Amino acid sequence: MHFSKEAEANGFRHVLGLSGGKDSAALAVYIKDKYPEISKKMEYFFSDTGSELKEVYEFLDKLESFLDKEIKRLSSGKTFEHWLKVHNDYLPSPRQRWCTRVMKIKPFEEFIKDDPVISYIGIRADEHREGYISQKPNIKPKFPFVEDGIIRSDVFGILDRSVGVPKYYDWRTRSGCYFCFFQRQGEWLGLKRNHPDLFEKAKDIEKTSGDGFTWVQGKTLDEVVAHAEKREKEKGIILTDKTSKLERWQEILAQEEDEEDEDKACLICTL
């Protein structure tokens, strides 16, 4: 991983956004191990919507301890429910990602201000993801995993040897809010099974949304999980089987059809 003389001479800040997901966490561990001089300068941050799974907060605490550096918690200062009202009760969607803009990007850019910054992003060498990369001229993105050829199996290896994998990966493929509209049908079913209270909250939000919009286009959450359960039985998949391996779960979820691909999700949310 190379750094320009200009960046060093101009005193760029080094920042790494952590989502509570595997890739950004593995990147923080990787840089600490492989590039200790950069790690010493690194500022870690997490844009907290207040609607994350409890497993995310637990994992961030564990990662913070491992890195032995503070992970700054950024916030919009308001709850999701507040911003939903501001947006006339219209649920966020892949085409209207107001939640990302208001609760993730704006706090990040307020944290950065106009300082010259190198932002480290955990896109791997084996994926072709696009998402939020700031257009502000003072922010320079850097992709260490791409430069160093780090792929998905490497990421799991990095985590296995250090802080472990977040517990929600037993039934989910991504970090982000519990009601994230990029969830696959099987993941909504996983939410219902693992956090029934949050599933009911997501249903309540859906019922009060503007013009009857739903989290999954054309289906209510009850219809989504009913369909997921049906497919589960047809394929002989028992998602609550505790003997299953993490990566087997990930493969099962990744093979689901007619779902949003992970690479379409918000980069700043799901790394």
Structure overview:
- The longest helix has 15 residues, at 98-112.
- 46% of the residues lie in helices and 8% in strands.
- The chain is α/β, with parallel strands linked by helices.
- It has a 5-stranded parallel beta sheet, with helices on both faces.
Major sheet details:
5 strands, parallel
Q: What is the C-alpha radius of gyration, as a whole number of Å?
A: 19 Å
Which structural class do the helices and strands define?
Answer: alpha/beta
Q: Can you list the strand order of the major beta sheet?
A: 3-2-1-4-5
Global mean pLDDT: 85
Number of helical stretches of at least 4 residues: 13
CA(first)-CA(last) distance:
19 Å
Helix content: 40-55%
Helix and strand pattern = HEHHEHEHHEEHHHHHHH
Q: Tell me the number of strands.
A: 5
Low-confidence stretches: 256-263
Shape: globular
Strand content: 5-15%
